[in-house]
Amino acid sequence: MKELMVVSKVTTNGVGSGGIIIGAATSAASEASVTPPQDLRERVKDYGQDDVFALWDELSLEERDFLIRDIRSLDLARIDRIIRCSFRSQGVPTPEIEPVPETSVSKVEERTMDERARWWKMGLKAISEGRLAVLLLSGGQGTRLGSSDPKGCFSIGLPSGKSLFQLQAERILRIQRLAAQSNDDTFVPIHWYIMTSPFTDDATCKFFESHGYFGLDADQVTFFQQGTLPCVSKDGRFIMETPNKLARAPDGNGGVYSALKSSKLLEDMAKRGVRYIDCYGVDNALVRVADPTFLGYFIDKGVASAAKVVRKAYPQEKVGVFVRRGRGGPLAVLEYSEMDPSMTLEINQTTGRLRYCWSNVCLHMFTLDFLNQVAHGLEKDSIYHLAEKKIPSVHGHTMGWKLEQFIFDAFTYSPSTALFEVLREEEFAPVKNANGSTYDTPDSARLLVLRLHSRWVVAAGGFLTHSVPLYATGVEVSPLVSYTGENLEAICRGRTFHAPCEITY
């Protein structure tokens, strides 16, 4: 199901395929009567969903109006296809899983300085020519962090107090400057597409507006919403959250593909001359947004898709890993919950590493042509993951299914995928759980940032003092000053910084 997409600077009137009826000429108020509208009753009955009107007689006129609008907003044919295809896919034997071929991975220890410099230069050139767009997955709330705000609004407690959104925006600003310097000071803005959800869209837009888009031009940022889908029972029937309202849930971060398609943003990218898309999740405090090295590697390899990966920290780590599905088949991500415990312990006798060691950390690069292919392919196949959850319903919380697609579902459609190994301590500081949890907290992410930046400062000839143990603190380098530790010698050499502090111009 696709709801009407609301896009900052871009609006759409059509949603997905199948002809959703939204904003019908006849208002729901004039339709509400003793019985539900005849055409609507017939539509829901055709798809076996007539239970949505089971409590009609108990509803007020206003509640009936709301229910009619809620049902009319659905593309019932599309949703029925999704439910049938997703249920049918359960229990279907999957291709045999094989490890990722070593030749598919660019490993840190095998890369030369010359290669890195060449990829960096290639990436900056493409950026300076306007060929890269950045795509941010930001539909989640910070509930697990103890906040009702969008996760990107969250501050992990750095000396600057900057939010995740601000850190990422300033990295874009820095790369724009570096790209312009590499191309005779010709400035081309990087367009930033930010996917929100119905639960975070308004707050996200207001946060950017109130902070002046963190120095970016407002017209280089586009917000768009992912869709939602009805939650369903074990027999595929819609669950009613209240007598007059469907229980719905976001369609997963993989909903980005259909959202880009239905909001016509793939066409928008093409008009802007974009050829490559850097895609990432909001909850990584060390994400290198618009990384020229990764982009240059991607262009050099000539593949349709690529992903940054880190090696599993230990066999039982709860992360999805890249695998090959079937002999000679495509690369795909296998969730840790899908792995047999014995698989997690298997060792590659040649390398001495785990056979299944390449963790997916949601740092991806795609060509625009491939994004178009994925958007059409996923829509055609209509297979969603079924997540069993407790769903709020008129009968209290009941077990049911949420229907989701994941960002990594794209890889099974890719004719060619390359994996690019990065170091956790340099590029992966996840912010998922509240402080006090055992891992992926704001505190752990903050320490990863401060330790990395402290190493940059020392490497540039600076000195650090501190009033608490250095392992618990450090210095923060503003992204406006340095992207990966460059440009710091003139600022740091011979100077002493008292941690914690932020280094700016």
Automatic annotation (TrEMBL):
Gene Ontology MF terms in the entry: UDP-N-acetylgalactosamine diphosphorylase activity; UDP-N-acetylglucosamine diphosphorylase activity
Pathway in which this enzyme or protein is active: Nucleotide-sugar biosynthesis; UDP-N-acetyl-alpha-D-glucosamine biosynthesis; UDP-N-acetyl-alpha-D-glucosamine from N-acetyl-alpha-D-glucosamine 1-phosphate: step 1/1
Pfam families xrefs: UDPGP (PF01704)
GO biological process: embryo development ending in seed dormancy; embryo sac development; pollen development; UDP-N-acetylgalactosamine metabolic process; UDP-N-acetylglucosamine biosynthetic process
InterPro entries attached to this UniProt entry: Nucleotide-diphossugar_trans, UDP-sugar_pyrophosphorylase, UDPGP_fam
Catalytic activity annotation: N-acetyl-alpha-D-glucosamine 1-phosphate + UTP + H(+) = UDP-N-acetyl-alpha-D-glucosamine + diphosphate; N-acetyl-alpha-D-galactosamine 1-phosphate + UTP + H(+) = UDP-N-acetyl-alpha-D-galactosamine + diphosphate
Keywords: Nucleotidyltransferase, Transferase
Family affiliation: Belongs to the UDPGP type 1 family.
Name of the protein: UDP-N-acetylglucosamine diphosphorylase 1
The organism of origin for this protein: Acorus calamus
